[in-house]
What we know:
With 421 residues, the chain is mainly beta. The protein has one domain: Beta Barrel (Porin). It contains 3 helices and 19 strands.
Amino acid sequence: MSRVKWIMILAAFLSCKFVLAQHTYSPYTVIGIGDLNGMGLANNAAMGNVGIATPSVWNINNINPALLTYNTLTVFEIGVEGENRKVSNNFNSVKVGTGGFKYLTFAFPIISSKWTSNIGLMPYSTVNYNFSATQAISGTNVDAVIDFEGSGGLNQVYFSNGVQVARGLSLGLRVSYIFGLIEEITSTRLEGGGLTQQFPTGYYGKTNYSGFNAGLGASLRKSLNERDVLNFGMTFDLGNNIKGTRLERIQFETGTGNTVPGDTLVNDLKSGYQLPADIGIGFSWQKLNKLTLGLDIKRSFWDEQAGFANDTEEYRSVWMIALGFEIVPKYNDVNSYIKRIRYRLGLDYKQAPFVINGETLSDFGINFGWSLPVKGVSALNMSFKYGQRGKVSGTQVKEQYFKFALGATINDRWFVRRKYN
């Protein structure tokens, strides 16, 4: 397929309303800047988001910038993600389906096998919740019903470089600009006790964030023989305090469903949100052009009071561990398409960084997927995940979810000067 046709297809892909929607719904995103999305692409997701020490010549490695040196071709990748999530507590359960844009990234070699650069855009965090709580008013038979709604999140634009400094040893650097808007609405109404129709009153908050972050990476490759290779990797994200500006005001609802702004409580309050410093180590064994087995372990160091100035959330440092496997039966079999497909499987476990009334929660997922070869050296990457987070208790809800990610990878040789006309 010609380069022009690819660009037209991708432009149409980006214009769909689907990619503009939120791709995670969770009551837990009420906390801080919401759920952090990670740097993995669809091929990583199918392996449990393993990527610190799993180099690939066909896919961009967003997780460890040192591994960009393996991208000797120009690579363009785009992805979307959808999910179905069931949220349950002691009284009720709800099922919600969402979907949205996952990543857009482009890598190109400056010096083949020595230096590759990468630019990209992807969500950094997601806020998407809508739930209610009921509280009895002491001494009356009236209940206060409080509705909570939030939307938005942060995005990041990043520029990465991977450089080979010695045979088998590469270093990488990623610089990100993080920005976005989070809106929160809380409204209260009274029910029971013979009350007549009323219009809820509530709170509206809007916080704009922006700032920079940076990450480092290293990769070491050791060949055991012509086919077997060991890879070691390390990543370190510096963490940074991104600046925020908040507006808070009272608002009223009218009988027609519209809202009317009331008194401003806070205008142009300036503070920040402390992003965590992360350190990760990875190991993989590869039988070239056949299989890969990888293991990643990461530790995120959170400030206990990482939130915005007048937020009261409590945070803790957390662990993440992932194990992933990839196999391609016969990558160069021209007679069997099935044998050229890359099959993937992975497990991942991670702890949530926030503490709710002294309780913590964990997230466990089972992942699988594949890459379908397309003409030339491009592919369609698919990943699936069944996961569970939290539990049914007084201060937690249980979330069971099924995620699907679809990514397109285009490998080509661009920026090559013609030798003949």
